[in-house]
Amino acid sequence: MIRPPGFRGAAFGEAAEGDLRVDSVSRRKVAGELGISPEWAFVTQIHSAMAVNALDPGPQGEADAIFTTRHALPLAVATADCVPVILEGADFTAVVHAGWRGASAGVVDKTVETLRTKGHQIERAAIGPSIGPCCYEVGPEVAERFDGHVSQTTWGSTSVDIAGYLADSLAGIPMWRSQRCTYTDDQLHSYRRNRTKLRQVAVAWLPAG
Fold it and tell me: Between the N and C ends of the chain, which has fewer C-beta atoms within 10 Å?
C-alpha cells in the first residue's frame, strides 16, 4: 500500500495486493498490516457527483464519494485509471472516486462543500495514482470539459489531466499527489491498458481514538 506522508488514516493500493473489493482474504491481510478492521464501507460507483455518509461497514448504495465521522470505520473506492482522492480532517475522513464524468460533474467540489456545510474543516488532501495526460486519450467532447488541463499523449493525440484538474479544485488545501500513471506502471491496474476487470482500492479511516 502507498501511504501518503502526514496522514493519519490513508492508503492507496497496488495490483499485487489483490482486488480488495471482492477478495476478503487479501483484504484481511492488508487490513492487518494497516491496523484497521477488515470490514469496510464501499459504494456502487456510478461516475456521479454523489457523496454518502457511512455509519456502518458494507454497501452504501450508489455514489462516488464516502465520508464518515465514525472512528475505526474504513472507507474504500476502487480505481483502474480514475482518480482516487482522500480528504482528511480532525473529525472526519472521506474518499472519492473521480473519472472524467464525475470530475466534470464536480464530485470533489461537492464532497468538499458537503463536508464544510456540516462544519468540518479539511486539513489535507491526497490524490492517488491514476492515468496521466501522457496516456489518457480523449475526444473533443471530453476535452472541452477540462479547459486549462488539455494536453497531448506521448503519441500526439488529445488528452486531459484529470488529476491536475482536481488538484486545482483543491487549491489552498495542503496536498500530497502521486505522480504514478496507471497506464504505464505495471504495478497498478489500468483498464485502458488491458481492459482488466480488476481494481486497486483507496482506503481511508479515522483512527480509533
Answer: C
Say what the pTM is.
0.96
Distance CA 58, CA 24 (A): 12
> For cell 488529476, what's the residue?
163
In sequence order, what are the beta bridge partners of 88? Answer: 93, 124
- Residue 15, in any domain of the structure: yes
Give the structural domain span for 103. 10-130+174-204
The Cα 170–Cα 174 span in angstroms is 9
What DSSP string runs through 128-190? --B--TTT-B--HHHHTTSTT-EEE-TTS-EEE-HHHHHHHHTTTS-EEE---BTTT-TTS--
Cell of 138: 480523449
pLDDT tens string, the chain, 209 residues long: the values are: 999 999 999 999 999 999 998 999 999 999 999 999 999 999 999 999 999 999 999 999 999 999 999 999 999 999 999 999 999 999 999 999 999 999 999 999 999 999 999 999 999 999 999 999 999 999 999 999 999 999 999 999 999 999 999 999 999 999 999 999 999 999 999 999 999 999 999 999 999 86
The CATH number assigned to the domain holding 185 equals 3.60.140.10
Amino acid at 107: V
CB 90 within 8 A of CB 113: no
